[in-house]
Design brief:
Number of domains: 2
Number of helices: 10
Bound molecules: NADPH dihydro-nicotinamide-adenine-dinucleotide phosphate
Distance between the termini: 32 Å
CATH architecture of the largest domain: 3-Layer(aba) Sandwich
Helix content: 25-40%
Shape: globular
Largest sheet: 6 strands, mixed
CATH superfamily of the largest domain: NAD(P)-binding Rossmann-like Domain
CATH topology of the largest domain: Rossmann fold
Strand content: 15-25%
Order of helices and strands: EHEHEHEHEEHEHEHEEEHEHH
């Protein structure tokens, strides 16, 4: 019987997850359908419960529902527990299992696709939402020199930094608190979706910096600024495919190949 999967978010029309999971299905000869569900902002729980009650086999969760998905899950993987955000839901006999594959997706894209090592680097992480929460612990695990989380709402970033302080040298605050130069600057805000500029100092890009934009498929003001500052740039398509492969593995126990799918989508 065809298994049903979907990505749930709001907005969700931009998501390329359906193309990715359909490509994984072709590659692994899986009989599945994968659609987009735009849940009303106040109806994530009802929409999700309805999907699984009707036999749904798995959901990818995107903006702005990762914190709600965390609360809804009856069980959590260790990495989702630490992140405090869930981007993957799977039905289990004793309730929904919540996982977070964003961190491993980013690290695999950096390490395996871009040949970049974060060890010893100065990392500036922009944003304090679900995506940011998911990548902090894996980034600290790669032993950077330091990590600063900057967010529009600076208190949120400072609080997030305190939450992860046992995992490595992390601090957080508002954009106005960004000082000095940074080797790896990751934009985990959703500002690029609305073409909004971030109040980022031009001087924050170190020589040979890598600017990583989690938003994919569009040229954002962050990418333009980074290019003007002479930085190497990357968008989040590789991360998206890598985190999706980890979801596919959780749902179906098969690990698809990512390189041909990244190539296909580009
Ligand atoms: P959330 O809604 O949880 O968080 C949004 C974040 O963006 C908050 O930190 C918010 O700041 C900030 N923000 C929003 N608009 C602006 C703006 N105009 N100026 C400055 N900051 C802004 O979203 P997620 O964390 O789940 O996702 C963030 C982005 O990352 C999305 O665009 C998503 O598509 C992308 N993403 C990509 C992935 C990939 O695989 N490539 C995986 C996961 C996410 P504040 O707290 O002040 O409101």
């Amino acid at each position: 019987m065809t298994e049903r999967y979907a990505v749930i978010g709001n907005p969700v029309g931009h998501s390329r997850s359906p193309e990715i999971h359909r490509a994984f299905a072709l590659q692994t000869r899986a009989d599945l359908e994968y659609t987009r569900i735009e849940a009303p902002l106040d109806a994530f729980v009802a929409t999700t419960e309805g999907f699984f009650a009707a036999g749904g086999a798995g959901l990818s969760v995107t903006i702005p529902f990762k914190a709600e998905a965390f609360k809804l899950a009856k069980q959590l993987t260790a990495r989702a527990q630490r992140a405090g955000a869930v981007n993957t839901l799977a039905p289990r006999p004793d309730g929904l299992l919540g996982d977070n594959t964003d961190g491993i997706g980013l690290l695999r894209d950096l390490g395996e696709n871009l040949g970049y090592t974060a060890e010893g680097r100065r990392i500036l992480l922009l944003g304090a939402g679900g995506a940011s929460r998911g990548v902090i612990e894996p980034l600290l695990g790669s032993q950077p020199q330091k990590l600063f989380i900057a967010n529009r709402n600076g208190d949120r970033a400072a609080e997030l930094a305190r939450h992860f302080v046992d995992f490595g040298p992390v601090d957080g605050g508002g954009f106005e608190e960004i000082e000095g130069e940074w080797d790896l600057i990751i934009n985990a805000t959703s500002a690029g979706l609305s073409d909004s500029e971030l109040p980022l100092p031009f001087e924050c890009f170190a020589q040979d910096a890598l600017a990583y934009e989690m938003v994919y498929g569009r040229d954002t003001p962050f990418l333009a600024l980074a290019r003007n500052a002479g930085a190497r740039t990357a968008d989040g398509l590789g991360m998206l495919v890598e985190q999706a492969a980890e979801q596919f593995y959780l749902w179906r126990g098969v690990r698809p190949q990512t390189a041909p799918v990244i190539q296909l989508l580009r």
